[in-house]
What does this fold into?
Amino acid sequence: MVRQDGRPGHRGFGLLERETALEAAEEALDLLTGARPERVPAPRGAARAPHLVVHHGGAHPVPRPPAEGRPGGGAPAPGPRPVPLADPTVPVPRPPAEGTPAPAARPETPEATPERRRRGGILRYEAAPGLGRTALLAEIRRRAATRGCVVLAARGTGSSGSGPYATARHLLLTPPDAGIPEDGPGAAREQLDRSLARLAGHRPLVLVLDDAHAADPESLGWLTACAERAADLPVLIVLAHRAGALPEAAAGLVGRPAHRLDPLGPAALARLVRERVGTHADDVFCRSFRALTGGNPAEAVALAAAVRDHGLDPTADSARALRDLAAAVTATGLVARLESLGPTAVRLAWACAVLGTEAPPRLAGAVAGLGGETVAECARRLREARVLAEADGPDAPLAFGHPLLAATVYDAVPAATRVALHGQAAWCVAEAGLGSTATARHLLETHPEGDPWVVGHLRAAAREHLRDGAPEAAARSLARALREPPAADERDDVLAELDRATRLARDVDGAGNGTGPDRAAHRDAGHRLSPVLADRDRLARAADLLARKARPAAPPRDGSGDDGP
It folds into this structure.
């Protein structure tokens, strides 16, 4: 239960020992909604202490007020705070002069406090898998909603996404073709910016992204740009990701303060065990439980469920049996449990892992080669085994109960089978009319076979990527198309498209440097593109390509020397 004041009563186990992380979220929401006046920065020369934090926009430390009930205002648990610096253009509120009547009290709602400047910011949480990132974000979403904020949430979906900016579009509930001109490079970002401004124009906006490490690079780049101006907008960006797993596209976010979620301590783990297994669980059993799970909440919950299912007595005498159960809920145990459900259930689970989160049953069945009734029966068995999450109905999407399960099942698929399933998924996605971008995502995981159908979808996907302002993704698709390879009569066109996409991405100084998404393909493009450019009255460009090919590759020069398309 959660009290109406927003403070936790009995909370989910994913929130155990997360008070510091939630306190940071409360402070960010205070600033976002204007519920608390901005703090005045300390002098530039002030000494830093554990209770001071430096905002990303400047070097002034910002003092945190003493916690109530803490003698002498002792410093709270350390951790970065999303407190922006006071704007020097905004006058600092002064106390009323003596004898001045106090103003009437106002309710603390976003609509009722316009005189307090609302400030956004960014909160970043990082943790190893299973330490409760998702539960923490769910609680932050709930608290933001009770304050009257507009709350939008999404999850990075890795290979299951639908191309560049897929995560950002999902986050802002923006359809891929809403207002994008056919020939407008960069229009996707413009569309997202317009959507963001519209959503934040009336009420404070909270954007919550889970599994940010699995988001597409273009969405991460857009969020990084948003973070640069978040403090000046009523927008709070909340990210959660695996520790140390943010890709290069999010380099601008890595340097910002982050809260690390640690494994549960002995007391919290013992509480979890006794509430899940029974209050009579003794101390030795609880200590063994923590030693076997490492304090990981997700693994502890799974092991507790296994203890209940097997009727294990939670005492010191059950230590050996507990170790056997723990082995069964690990990755190896999950694979064994999956295989025990039969080959058809295994095929459906593999198909879901290849397609990604929330796979439609019909599509998953087509990839697995199973009929509708067989899919329904296998899905039922997978849910009973806690591999798939519970669903609202027979047509509900198939989703794994936890991202860890999805990753484990995907990694368990034999390499050759995985490639074949991606090929089958590409064909099924195209037949379902989901577009070349979704199709190309799977084609990138297949082996070249000289198939014109593959080249056609990869080129079409590249055109969509360029239209969306994602030339890096276009270059990846075209480099893969070049390896297929294309027919002789279209090879020159693919090379020219690859050169254009590569130069737009500014990853290399032309197609001949060989440092882009596919080095071998770009070297090949450097040789082959020169006669193509010569035929098109681009002699200077052709000569430059050949000259650079004849000498050792040099680092990129930030696009200097590039001519127009």
About this structure: The radius of gyration is 27 Å. DSSP finds 22 helices and seven strands in the chain. The first strand starts at residue 52 and ends at 54. The mean pLDDT is 74.
